[in-house]
Amino acid sequence: MAVVSYEIKSGVGIIRLNNPPVNALSQVLREGIQNAVVAAQGDESQVLLIVCEGRTFVAGADITEFGKPAKAPSLPSILDSIENSVKPVIAAIHGTALGGGFEIALAAHYRCALASAKVGLPEVKLGIIPGAGGTQRTPRIIGVDAALDMITSGNPVAAAKAHSMGLVDHIINGDLLEGAMSYAERLIADNAPCKRVSDMTIDPATATDALFDSWRKKMAKKSRGQLAPQKIIDAVQIAVTSSVPEGMVKERELFTECVQSTQSSAMRHIFFAERAAAKVNDLAKDTVDRTISKVGILGGGTMGGGIAMNFANVGIPVVMIEINDDALARGLDIVRKNYSITVSKGKLSEEQMKDCLSLISGSTNYDDLGDVDLVIEAVFEDLDVKKEVFAKLDKACKQGAILATNTSYQDVDKIAAATTRPDDVIGMHFFSPANVMKLLEVVRGEKTAGDVISTTMKLAKKINKIPVLSGVCYGFIGNRMLRCSVRENQLCMMEGASPEQVDAVMQGWGMAMGPLAVGDLAGLDVSYKARQALTEEQKGDPKSYCIVDAMVEMGRLGQKSGAGYYRYDPDTRARSSDPEVMAVIERLSAEHAIERREISDDEILNRITCAWINEGAYILQEGIAQRSSDIDVVYVNGYGFPIYRGGPMHYADTIGVKKVYDMICEFQRQHGDVWKPSALLEQLAAENKTFSQWSDEQT
Ligand code: 3H9
Description:
Strand content: 5-15%
GO molecular function: (3S)-3-hydroxyacyl-CoA dehydrogenase (NAD+) activity; enoyl-CoA hydratase activity; isomerase activity; NAD+ binding
Family: Belongs to the enoyl-CoA hydratase/isomerase family.
Catalytic activity: a (3S)-3-hydroxyacyl-CoA + NAD(+) = a 3-oxoacyl-CoA + NADH + H(+)
Oligomer: single chain
Number of strands: 19
Pathway: Lipid metabolism; fatty acid beta-oxidation
CATH architecture of the domain at 4-259: Alpha-Beta Complex
Bound molecules: (S)-3-Hydroxyhexanoyl-CoA
Keywords: Fatty acid metabolism, Isomerase, Lipid degradation, Lipid metabolism, Lyase, Multifunctional enzyme, NAD, Oxidoreductase, Peroxisome
Structural class: alpha/beta
C-alpha cells in the first residue's frame, strides 16, 4: 500500500497515511501529504480528512532523520498548505498524535479523535522543542499556563480531557473512519468554515512576564541542567506578541539550536536505547513465550509489596507468601498504604485501588504457589537462604512455571542449581521503590531457557518496566559499576575531599542526588552487611570502605538513624553538614598515612565517571551486557544519571573514548591496578572508535 493514498467518498477527500510502525513523518510521508493536500485543492471534494492506517495517528517527526541534512518538504511548509487549504481539513486521530503529528492536527481546521486516543507534544523528552508550530498554536487554544504545562511536561493528554480543553473538537465512539466520515459530512452540511488556530489570539493579561519567570524558575528546578524546557518557555512567550508565521520562524531557530545540542543527541540516544534494550540478540526465531496469568511473590517486605503492585496494576492476580500471619499482614498493609498514597495524590481512584487490592491475596503456605506461572523471590539477600527457598519452590511450583529471584548481587546460577530445573530460573532485579522505578535488570543464568528470557522481557514491558538483559556477575550491570564509583568517592574523601564537595560536584554535573546523600537515603548498613559476606580480596582496599564502615559502626546508618555522612532534622529531614564526619575522615586518612590534599572538582568528576566507564567496558568485553546502550539505559533509569548526558558509555563516546582511556591510564599510574583499563577500552582508543560503533558491529 502506498505511503499516502487519496480517494473521494461522499464529498470527503480522504488522505490516508500508511508509514508503519507509527506513521513517523519521514521524507516520503511528508512529500506524500504535501502533494495530496495541494492536489485536492482543485478537485470536487468539499472537505479533506487526514486519517492514518495502523496502530496510531502520526507519532511525530522521524527521529532518525534528526542530525542529518534536512530534506524538503519541511514540516512547517506542509502545515502551511494544510492551514491555508481552501476547504476545511479534518484530522482524525487514533492511538497517539504526538509531536509533529499533533502539530499537523493543530494546523488542520477540525480535530476529531477516538475516545481512546491521546494527543501530546513530547519533544522535551528528546531534548528539543516542538518545531512546527506546537509552541505557537497550543497556547492560542488552551492559554499560556496550560500550554506550558503540556509542552514542558511532554505528557500526553487523553482525548476526553483534550476535548474539554478545546484541543479536540469531536470525540468518536466506535469505528474511527465511520465516525470521522459522519463528522465530515456534518461539517459539509453545516457549510463549516476553515477554522484556523492562527486567527486566534492570546489575551496578554494571561501571559504576564511574572508568569513566564515563575515557569523559568520552576523548570530550572524540575529539569535541572536541561536546555529544552527553557527554550520552550521562550518560544511560548514569543507566541503572545507574534503572528503564527512570525512565531514559527523564531520557534524553528530555537528548535534547530536544541536539535544540534549534545543534550538532545543524548536524549535521542536513550529513546532508541530503551527500545533496543528489549531485544535479545541470540533468541531462536521460533521461540514461543509462556503464558503468565498468575504470579506468586515470595516475601512481603517493601520490595515484595512493591513488586506485587506492578502485576496487580495491569490486572494480573498475585499471591504473596510470607512465613507467618503477622509478616503477611504487615506485607499486605504496606501494599494498601502505598496504594492509599497514590489515591491521595489523585493518581488513582478509590475504585481502581479496590480493583488492584482485590487481585492481591496472601498465604503462608508454599502449596498456594501450585497454580502460579511465575514466582518472584524477594527474601533476605543471603545466598544460602535463597538456595533453600528455591529448593522449596522447585517442589511447590508446577512444571513450566518460571522461578525468578529478585537478588541484587547473588549468583543466579548457584540459586538455579538448588532446583531440578535450572532452565526455568532467571533473575528479575527490581529497583526500589519497585512500584515506581522503571528499570528491571533481567538476569539470564547459564542454563536459563530462551523462552524464559523472552517471556520475562515481554512481561517487563507489560508491567511498564524497561527491561535490560544482564549476564551473571557480582552486582550485574548496575551495582557492579556502582561499586567502582563508590570506591572512588570514598578514596576521594580519604585523599582530601569532603562529602559536601563530592556530592556538590556530582549533583552539579546532573546526577539526581550526590552519591553520599544517596548512601544516606538507601542506608549505609546495606553495603556494610553485604561486605561481611565477602572475602578480604573481594572487599578490595580497606581505604575504599573504611569511612562507610566507621559511619555504620558509630550507628550512623543514614537518614533512618538521623545521621550518616550528614545530619538530618528528625521532623523535616533537612540535611546539614556534620563536623564529626570530617573529623572521622581526617582521622582515617591519618591512620592510613594519607597526606590530605586539595582535590579539584574535575578530579572527582573524572574519577567517578571513568570508574563507571572502565567497568562498563569490562562488562561489555565479558558479554555481560548485550550492547553499550543497555548500560546507559540502566544508569539513566536506575541510578539517577542525567538523561541529557545519555548514560556513562554515551558520555564516553561524547567526550572521546581515547580521552577517557588516557585519563584511566593516568589514574592507573597514580593509584594502581584497580584502574587497569579494559582491553576493549584500549582497543577502541587505538582504533578511534566509539562504544556505540563497536556495539553496532557486534550484531
Ligand atoms: C517531533 O515531532 C518534532 C516536531 O515538533 C518538529 C519537527 C520539525 N521516529 O515505542 P515503540 C520507532 S519529535 C522514528 O516500541 P509503542 C521505535 O524506535 C517526535 N522512529 O512502540 C520502534 O522501532 P523498533 C515527537 C520511531 O507502541 C518502533 O517505532 N514524537 C518514532 O510502545 C515502535 O515504537 C515522539 O517523541 C519516531 N518518532 O509506542 C513520539 N516513534 O521497532 C515517540 C517510534 O525498531 N514515539 N519509533 O524498535 C513514542 O512515544 C512511541 O513510539 C509511541 C508508540 C507512543 C508512538
